Amino acid sequence: MANTILIYDDDEEILQLCTAILSMQGFNTITKNKCVDIFADVSSIQPHLVLMDLWIPEIGGEQAISMLKASPTTSKNPPILIFSANADIKQLSEKLNADGYIEKPFNLHTLVNTIKEKIS
Amino acid sequence: MSTPEINTSNKETGNSNLLYSAIIENNPDCVKLLDKDGRIQFMNKNGQCLMEIEDFAAVKNQYWWDLWEAEEKEIVQASFHNAMAGKTGHFTAKCATAKGKFKWWDVVVSPVSTGQSGETQIVSISRDMTERKEQEKALQKMASHLQLATESANVGTWSLDMQTSQLEWSPLHKRMWGYDDKRDDLHYEDWHRLIHPEDKEKAFSKVEEAKQNHSLYEVEYRIERADDQSIRWIKSTGLYYYNQQGEAVTLTGVSIDITRQKQTEQELKSIKTQLEITFNNVSAAIQLRNKQGEIIYANEEAANILGFESVETMLIKKNTSAITEDVLSRYDMFDEQHKPLLLENAPYAISLKTGKTAEATILMVNKQDQSRKWVLSKSSALLDENKEVSLVIATNIDITAQKTVEEKIKESEERFRNLADQIPMWIWMADENVYVTYANQEILKYLGLKEHAQLTAHAWEAFVHPADIDVVYTSLGMANNKPVSFEFRVKNGSSGQYEWFRINAVPRNPENPSGFIGTAVNINTSKLAMQSLTESEARFRLLADIMPQQIWSSDNEGKLNYFNNAVYDYSGLTFDDIEKDGWMQIVHPNDREENVRKWIHAISTGDDFFMEHRFKNHAGEYRWQLSRAKPYRNADGKIVLWVGTSTDIHDQKIKEQQKDEFIGIASHEMKTPLTSAKGYLELLLMTLEKDTTPSIYAHKASKAVERLHNFVTELLDASKIQNGQINYNMSPFDFNELVAETVDNIQHSTRTHTIVFSGKVAGKVTGDRNRLMQVLVNLLTNAIKYSPEADQVIIHISENEQHIKVAVKDFGIGIGKNHLDKIFDRYYRVQEHAVYFQGLGIGLYISYNIVQRHGGTMMAESELGKGSTFYFTIPVQQEIAGQ
């Protein structure tokens, strides 16, 4: 069964690009442009990995990650990768206790390889 | 200050007291002061000496009469009470000295009133009469003998029988010779026997002589008296009696004892000899002249001084004019004014004429050898009972030596004046009234005066600036007698302008104010320079005060000591406020620590101070300031002052912050579409068949997007550096590997250049690998970019004990010297290159900052048209601030 990647980003183009790339690589993708219902999403979708943009309206990515990592049911799984253009993404990922990061703009290999590495 | 009247009266009282006590102290007699009870209060020194009193305290307050012999007390007390009753009394009495020696005193007792109370005190003046008394006693004794002698006719008679040699003596004669006057057996032999051996021959020869010559026998001889062997002088006179045959029958005569007379003669002789010895031994020449003006006595010195060989050779010329003639033949005589001496002006001539004392200094110039002799001549006259001159005593003292010294002093004074006149400096003397007593030529020249006489007394006031006259008086007047230095203005005689002088003066007599001797130098130039300096300082202060920038200064220890008005206006504080609570009170709390650190660093190293920090203004609002301070060094290179400015950059700073914020947001926002574009282009490239036209287009688009991405990243980095927001991930890594990997990557992206990599370093470096790679990429891509005509870029790494060094060399267009120090500035671009090369000019700025954050340095060497070499270093021992 294909692995499901849950992607949060407020930019529709990025969501479509990621879907296109990851589908080609045999991933099942679900995209969201808001993370207000992050807990509901994660429990209903049961993704194998979450890609989380930081600059998202309403509840920001940083807060969403903090919430997931703070909850016992989601602190370990699914793995969460920060997905941002922020130059300090590495520091942020450490700070938020995320499982990794993908810096925008990314190249295709980095995206695919990082995700594959985290799921296996 | 005391008034002149008080001065005078004090002086008089002082003088009279002085005189009074001098008289008492110099009185040769014993002067005593007794209180109203007769107790001794005072005794002069001479009196204590006469009374052989060693400690006056032992006598003080004793009753006067207790000093006297018991039998004298009554007369002493009586005279005291008499004196208390107001009568002056006089008595003679015996009193022993403290050492028990009896002395006779002639005493005058008189009342005086002393003190302000007018209380009566008694003065007793006792003259030591002992010697006189003794003489009197001796005289009395002699008188009684004489009286006795006179009573017995005092003349012994005698008669000698020439035939029998039988002597017939009167009883007195016998007694005179010491024989019992009852004796009648005296023979010629008894006369002969007693005559003094030395006088025997004389006595006999006279007897014979008189006999032969039929003359009076008259002889004086000594005898040794028969009874007590005492020597007596006897004068015998006798006459022969001749018989009709002409034979001498008897010699009859009288004898008188002339011992006393002889003794007196002897004494007189000895006194005369003594006098002569004394006179001849005093250095004064003494002449006695009679009322005719003839010299009747002169001592050896008197002869010497007038150039005679001896007194005799002088006195041979009995009359005065002959002596004068003789003297004038050898000497030219002058008076003190060097005018020929008129004889009637000679002191002895004046005394002779007037009966008064006279004195003159006479210069005698030897006609032969021109040697000079100065003689001080004094004379006084002795008057007889008719008040007519009977004798003139003249003394001449050779004062040549003294006079020579005086002349030498005069000469040396003259020399001093000559010397002082040569010195190109003011030299002057003034007395205690600030009268100028001497001013050298230099002063006269400056004042435009011809001679010193024009500067007498207070004439100097006319030349001194009216405002400065007081300082002259206070500095040099009686009130001050210490070395003094002051400045004053004096009018230049030729220009009429006042010029500044500095006087340095020392008191002529440190004990007693007697004026000053001093110098003065013209300090006009330096004084005016100082004034203009003060003025220029004032001008600069004014300038500083109208500057909108805050200006301040500190001493070499960093203590702030000056602020311009802008500081006060901005902070609302006063100098005292800042002095009291310190400058830090207005610095933003977050900036204080860094501020202190940087300021201490600057003060201790002498490096320029440079900082951006926030100051609180009078409204309580913090505003950004750019502060700079530079040290000011003296001629020795020692820092004496720090001058700083603080410029309000708040608006600028805020704008920059807004801009950086904007850049941050914009670049982030740009990255999102870039991400899409880049992703889709990659997807497209994957789907397109390679080397087809669409694939080549997509590839070009991908490259463009890549460049856009780099640009956005750089822009963001630059704004982050500005805000100190770049984060570094420091960790140890292999530097060789980093360089090799970077070179490899760049080599892949260029087809025009070959990157030549050489060198190797040992061990690992701790740093942000990605950031350092960014530096290497920046330098290598720049090297390629700015050497379009070349085909090689050289990168070399090396290390020493302190650091690793990377050098990137290109053979490109190079950078002009005028740009070389600015290339690391943000957004700086060499304008000449702008046409050919794209870019924001922030790459080197970012690299420079990254290297700096690693504790390293970056520099460049370049020559236009030949290429550039960029170096950077990374310390081997990593100590990175702000990790």
Report on the architecture of this protein.
The complex is a heterodimer of chains A (120) and B (883). With 120 residues, chain A is of the alpha/beta class. Chain A has five helices and five strands, in the order βαβαβαβαβα. Chain A has helices spanning 12-24, 38-45, 61-70, 89-95, 108-119, and strands at residues 4-8, 28-32, 49-52, 80-84, 100-103. The longest helix of chain A has 13 residues, at 12-24. Chain A starts with a strand and ends with a helix. The model of chain A has no long low-confidence stretch (mean pLDDT 88). In chain B, helix 20 (650-687) packs antiparallel against helix 21 and helix 22 (735-749) packs parallel to helix 23. Chain B starts with a helix and ends in an 8-residue tail after the last strand. In chain B, 25% of the residues are buried. In chain B, strand 22 (550-554) and strand 23 form a beta hairpin. Chain B is built from 26 helices and 33 strands. Classes of the chains: A alpha/beta (120), B alpha+beta (883). Chain A binds chain B through residues 11, 13-14, 17-18, 20-21, 55, 85-88, 90-91, 104-108, and chain B through 667-668, 671-680, 682-683, 686, 705, 709, 713, 716-717, 720, 725, 727, 729.
Helical percentage of chain A: 40-55%
Summarize model confidence as the mean pLDDT of chain A.
88
| Biggest sheet, spatial arrangement of strands of chain A | 2-1-3-4-5
Rg over alpha carbons of chain B: 63 Å
Q: Regarding quaternary structure, how should these chains be classified?
A: heterodimer
Q: Pairing-aware structural class of the strands and helices of chain A?
A: alpha/beta
Read across the widest sheet of chain B, the strand sequence of neighbours is 12-11-16-15-14-13
Uncertain regions spanning at least 5 consecutive residues of chain A = none
How many DSSP H or I helices of chain A? 5
Percent of sequence in beta strands of chain B: 25-35%
User: DSSP strand (E) fraction of chain A?
Assistant: 15-25%
| Quantity of strands of chain B, as a count | 33
Average per-residue pLDDT of chain B, rounded, comes to 82
Report the end-to-end length of chain A measured between terminal Cα atoms: 14 Å
Characterize the main sheet of chain B. Answer: 6 strands, antiparallel
Biggest interface reads: A-B, 19 and 24 residues
Which shape of chain A, going by the Cα principal axes? globular
Shape of chain B: rod-shaped
Helix fraction of chain B, binned, reads 40-55%
The first-to-last residue Cα distance of chain B is 80 Å
What ranges of chain B have pLDDT less than 50 throughout 5 or more consecutive residues?
Answer: 1-12, 149-153, 878-883
